[in-house]
Amino acid sequence: MQIVVVGGGAVGLLLASLLQKDHTQIHILVHRESQARELNDKGLQQIDVLQKSHQTYIKVSQDFKEFPTDALWIIAVKYHHLAGLQSLFQSLPKSTPLLFIQNGVMHLQFAKQLHQEHIAFSSVEFGAEKLSDSSVAHRGVGKMKIALGIGNGQLFEPLLQLSKDKLPMEWAENAEQMLTRKALLNCLINPMTTILNVKNGALITNKHSFLLIEQLYKEIMTAFPEQQDQLPFEDVIALCKKTATNTSSMLADRLNGRLMEVDTIVGGILQMAQTRNHEMPILATLHSLLIAMQQGGAES
Ligand SMILES: NC(=O)C1=CN([C@@H]2O[C@H](COP(=O)(O)OP(=O)(O)OC[C@H]3O[C@@H](n4cnc5c(N)ncnc54)[C@H](OP(=O)(O)O)[C@@H]3O)[C@@H](O)[C@H]2O)C=CC1
Ligand SMILES: CC(C)(CO)C(=O)C(=O)O
């Protein structure tokens, strides 16, 4: 199987390293020459959950024309990077299968305007932290769920055969439901880790943030009652525990002075609640705080 991972960030590097297996050829498309050079020279280092180091050598390039268009392309960039990949999507043939792994909900709409005929979405519940351009830490084993958006699901099924202990994979039936559930989990974790500047595990060991998570969970379930079965409170706690040592992707953005995925995660959920005529005062407050931080109101 051939896989092209687009984006050499935390998730892209971790996936490339975990998916590497005999008879599977992985390629990474990056957009900085310095990162391509470093990965090609040094290889990719992954520090696993037990702190063991693994080295892999993967073909990396800045030029997408070097990679097979009949491979499965995994789009591992942030939501706000997708617009910058328009020319790539236009150049790839309609038959290239695309798998989007973004958190949030807004990329569902983005994917609808592409000409590709086979599109799937994934929600990932592992922790990944980029340590340098050529090294990544696995900060908590978690499921990778895949659901079909449009086209032929069989094109994505070979990925499930790469499922293993450190990267369990599962097929999900409904992409929108799957992404909404994950966005709700992210609403419960990412904003508070970012505002408090703490790792995921600290949210549940501090009694004040734990209480806030409980209250936010109740607010979420009032607006999204159909998620009660799919997202019991225990799943929220379990994800904080599993990824206890991870810096959430939103906090990582904040610490690196990058744009945070506030719109597609928190904004997306607030919009959905509004269409259901539900106010979400706790989440709306977290949203305002994040926007203020983004705009420089809380620069450290
Ligand atoms: N980190 C985590 O633990 C988890 C993250 N996620 C989600 O996964 C997605 C990716 O997150 P994450 O990996 O953390 O993000 P990162 O910011 O670490 O990585 C994004 C990468 O995309 C690259 N990129 C941006 N534009 C382009 C482009 N035009 N061509 C090629 N590469 C490009 C960036 O390159 P450069 O650095 O050169 O700008 C960067 O390496 C997000 O939606 C996130 O919410 C989901 C679960 C867990
Ligand atoms: C799974 C989790 C919560 C890991 O930190 C994540 O999705 C993120 O950081 O964006």
TrEMBL record:
EC number: 1.1.1.169
Keywords: NADP, Oxidoreductase, Pantothenate biosynthesis
Organism domain of life: Bacteria
Catalytic activity from the UniProt record: (R)-pantoate + NADP(+) = 2-dehydropantoate + NADPH + H(+)
InterPro entries for the chain: 6-PGluconate_DH-like_C_sf, 6PGD_dom2, ApbA, Ketopantoate_reductase, KPA_reductase, KPR_N, NAD(P)-bd_dom_sf
Gene3D superfamilies recorded: N-(1-d-carboxylethyl)-l-norvaline Dehydrogenase, domain 2 (1.10.1040.10), NAD(P)-binding Rossmann-like Domain (3.40.50.720)
Ketopantoate reductase N-terminal domain residues: 3-147
Domain (Ketopantoate reductase C-terminal) ranges: 175-294
Molecular function in Gene Ontology: 2-dehydropantoate 2-reductase activity
Pathway stated in the Swiss-Prot or TrEMBL entry: Cofactor biosynthesis; (R)-pantothenate biosynthesis; (R)-pantoate from 3-methyl-2-oxobutanoate: step 2/2
Transmembrane segments: none
Assigned protein family: Belongs to the ketopantoate reductase family.
Role description: Catalyzes the NADPH-dependent reduction of ketopantoate into pantoic acid.
Protein name per the record: 2-dehydropantoate 2-reductase
